[in-house]
Amino acid sequence: MNAPADTDLDADGRVSQQLVDAYRQDGFVRVRGVLDQGEIERFRAAAEDYLETHRAESLETGATFSQLVNVWRRDPTLRDLTLDRRLGRIAERLAGFPLRLWHDQMLVKEPHSDTATEFHQDRPYWPHAGDRLPLSAWIALVDVPPERGCMTFLPGTQHRTGLRSQDLHDAEDLFAADPSLRWAPRVTLPLRAGDCTFHSGYTGHMALPNRTGTARLAHVTIYIDADTAYSGAAHPVTDGLGLTPGSRLDGEDFPRPWA
Fold first, then answer.
1. 66 is a domain residue
2. Burial environment of residue 95 by CB neighbours within 10 A (0 to 12, 13 to 18, 19 or more)
3. Domain total of the chain
4. For the chain: N or C, fewer Cβ within 10 A?
5. How far is CA 108 from CA 27, 92, 189, in A?
6. What is the CATH number of the domain that holds 198?
7. Helix, strand, coil % (nearest 5) of the chain?
8. What is the CA angle 150-122-27, rounded to 5?
C-alpha cells in the first residue's frame, strides 16, 4: 500500500506510540489514511460487486445491516485487503502479541436505514478459550459520518471481560448486563473513506443508523491471539471444521501472513 497524504502511518506503515498508548488505554483507536485513493476505489468496487451477488447469504436477517462473513475465501480482491500485511502488523503492534486471522466480514447498512446496531461487545459471541484481547480493524470504504452509521465506543470497557453475550438489537441489553456502563463516556468516531478504527473484542460499541442515500460499506478484519484455542461452542466460522475443544485455531483456516 502507498500511504495517502493525510495519514497516521509513517513511511514504513507503522503507527505512533501515542496511538498504541491510546488504544491500550481506551480499547479503540482511529487510524487515518490506511488506504490510499486507488485502493479505496479498488476495494469499494469489489465490495459492491460481492454484495450484489451474495447479499442473500447475510448472517444478519433483520433490517439492521447485511453481514457477509469470510469473504476472503471467495473474492481475490477482498482477500488482498483481509490478509494485508501492513494491517496485520498494525494490529499486532496495538495488541502487543502475535495475532492470527479469526475471520473477516463485510458490514453494510443500506441507504435510509433507520435502525441502529445497539451497544454490545464482540468477544462473548466467539468460541474462543485461553486467549488475550482480540481486536478488529473496521475499514471504511466510503465516507462514514455520524448520519451514515459510524461507530460510538465506550472507552475502557475492554476490561469488562466477564459479561454474557448481548442482543445487538436491544438498546438496553448491554446495560442490563452491566448497569454501570450506562454512565460510561461515549466517543463517536466519524471516518473518511480509507480510515480505520481498531477496537478490542471486549470494548462496548454501537453503530448509528444510516439516514443517507449512500450505502455504508465497511470491511472488517478480526484478529485473535495466535495461541487462541477452540472452546467447543457453535459458531458459523468453526462449524464444519471438525475441531475438538482445546484445538488451536491455526493453519490455513486462520492464517498469519504478516508474520
1. yes
2. buried
3. 1
4. C
5. 23, 26, 17
6. 2.60.120.620
7. 30, 25, 45
8. 70
User: Taking a C-beta distance cutoff of 8 angstroms, is the pair 137, 35 a contact?
Assistant: no
What whole-number distance in Å separates Cα of residue 103 and Cα of residue 254? Answer: 8
Q: Report yes or no: 150 and 117 within 8 Å, Cβ to Cβ.
A: no
Measured in whole angstroms, the distance separating CA 225 from the mean position of its chain's CA atoms is 15
pLDDT digits (tens, 9 = 90+) for 216-258: 999 999 999 999 999 999 999 999 999 999 999 999 999 999 9
Give dist(CA 82, CA 70) in Å, integer.
9
DSSP string, 161-209: --PPP--TT-TTHHHHH-GGGGGS--EEE-B-TT-EEEEETTS-EEE--
Contact 243, 192 (CB under 8 A): no
pLDDT by residue (tens digit) across 177-190?
Answer: 999 999 999 999 99
- Is residue 52 assigned to a domain? yes
Q: Count CB-CB contacts under 10 A for residue 206.
A: 19
